[in-house]
Specification:
This protein is mainly alpha-helical and about 90 residues long. It has a domain at about 25-80. It is built from 2 helices and 2 strands. The protein has a two-stranded antiparallel ribbon with strand order 1-2. Strand 1 (about 25-30) and strand 2 form a beta hairpin.
Length: about 90
Amino acid sequence: MRALLWGFRIFLFLFLLAFALENTDPVSIHFFFDTAWKAPLLIIVLAFFASGALLGVLSLLGTVFGLRREVSRLKRAVKTAAAPSL
């Protein structure tokens, strides 16, 4: 199973490497107010992928912190319920 996983990783790496080597043509992205960004296609794709991943992580932070707060509250409730009463 481990060898199959490494084989898949190597295949994925080689596929992405071939994609990167084939997409080095410069392209321009036009923004507002006549501004443009000229860079190789690969850089632009990676930048937008990274910014999308970052926005996804940031959108989940509120949920994660809320769940952590609930878990700590439930742990305190279990600890006080399990404590022997004197």
